[in-house]
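Input sequence (152 aa), recorded before submission:
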Amino acid sequence: MICPICKKGETSVVDSRPTEDGTAIRRRRLCSCGERFTTFERVQFRELMVVKKSGRKSTFDREKLSKSIYIALKKRPIDTDTVEKFITNISRSLEELGQSEIASSTIGTIVMDGLKNLDPVAYVRFASVYRNFREEKDFVQFVDKIDVFKKR
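Predicted structure, token format:
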């Protein structure tokens, strides 16, 4: 494994433990430069391709999905373990579809459905980007249609 600090490949595993309900292994690594960093090892069943609205295809990137979810959940009272399990469940759901190509809209819908149950504020944040809200009225119309906030 290459060190993200010094870019050398002289690292050793200091600690390993299962995470995410046993579906991944978390490894603490030590580089010869003295820096420590964490890596995760997960099973990948098949290479998933994401089909964009434009028709362009790109490889599914779990880190890109993770980044967008963490942005939606920024400063929300959801712990990191819960978020990581949420991301793993989405990735697993996509793999279980049994398709090698998945529309980006399908991924967005799955994420929105999950966020709706996890955190309503993150749900609206994600939707604002995913649905490309342009004006205040777009937010108002969206929030009026959902019943997440009415239950509280």
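Checked by second reader. Strands lie at 11-19, 24-31, 36-42, 49-51, 57-59, 101-103.
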